[in-house]
Design goal:
The chain has about 260 residues and is mostly beta strands. About 0% of the residues lie in helices and about 25% in strands. The strands form two sheets. An eleven-stranded parallel β-sheet has the order 1-2-3-4-5-6-7-8-10-12-14, with no helix packed on it. It is elongated. The protein starts with a strand and ends in a 16-residue tail after the last strand.
């Protein structure tokens, strides 16, 4: 069921009459201030536009015992970038905040989490430390300023698919592969305006880690360092019709002319 673009919707009490509903999307319902009618329901998937809800209203989410997929869009700044209380069976979480850096405190309790998508810049890369105990986490999407911000972050060994949005420096280097050594898929994006040129340095990723599929569909130019380390196991999904280009070798030093033989 989808409830969208309804400014006069003030409550969702009618949900009680439809216990069969397993999927619910609520978006742009400006008059809705309470979702307590969902308490204890058997919803399995919930997508919620949180812009107009009081923070306290989000506590209802923790009462949904069957909820496995949760999308929370535009959490209000009053929440300080924090996650609301969540039910224990969540396996996929997609969360974004209104102009507030995201915090991951408390997410370590979500032991079933296999996919996490964070649509806001992290308050600090140290927030990723909350994920180290999540043994089922395989898919992750993040916004960070630069890969250099990952210094000091403990490796997340089980992540296989990473969507990374860079907001400042567009260089991907060994620091990324140290934190995510098991990557098989890497999708790179940017919020930097203008002509977008990406540097992708693979020298920090041993070929023994297996094939790597790279998606760089938002960049006009992509330069790769040490792609040969992957021995042909780099799959290019670049956009703009331009393949991943290896870094050109430095120009050879000019040789001195030989002296004529006597």
């Amino acid at each position: 069921m989808s409830l969208a673009n309804n400014p006069v919707l003030a409550d969702i009490d009618f949900i009680h009459e439809h216990p069969e509903i397993q999927i619910l999307r609520i978006s742009d319902c400006r008059g809705l201030r309470d979702i307590a009618a969902l308490t204890g329901s058997r919803l399995q998937r919930l997508a919620l536009d949180a812009r107009f809800l009081p923070i306290a209203a989000l506590n209802t989410i923790a009462t949904l015992p069957a909820l496995s997929t949760l999308e929370l869009f535009d959490l209000p700044p009053e929440n300080g970038g924090m996650l609301p209380p969540l039910p224990p069976e969540i396996s996929a979480l997609n969360v974004s905040h209104q102009g507030t850096p995201a915090r991951l405190a408390g997410i370590a309790a979500q032991k079933n989490l296999s996919a996490l998508y964070v649509g806001s810049l992290l308050a600090s890369p140290a927030e990723l430390g909350e994920l180290t105990g999540l043994s089922r986490l395989r898919e992750l999407e993040l916004h960070i300023k630069t890969c250099g911000d990952l210094a000091g972050v403990a490796p997340l060994l089980r992540v296989r698919s990473l969507g990374l949005t860079l907001t400042e420096d567009l260089k991907v280097d060994a620091s990324l592969f140290r934190v995510f050594p098991g990557l098989g898929q890497l999708q790179l994006r940017s919020t930097v305006p203008g002509r977008i040129e990406l540097e992708l340095d693979l020298s920090g990723r041993p070929a023994s880690q297996g094939p790597l599929e790279v998606w760089t569909t938002e960049f006009q130019e992509v330069t790769v360092t040490d792609a040969e380390l992957l021995s042909g196991r780099l799959t290019d999904r670049s956009g703009y019709g331009a393949p991943l280009a290896p870094t050109p070798p430095p120009p050879a030093s000019p040789r001195s002319p030989r002296s004529p033989s006597p």
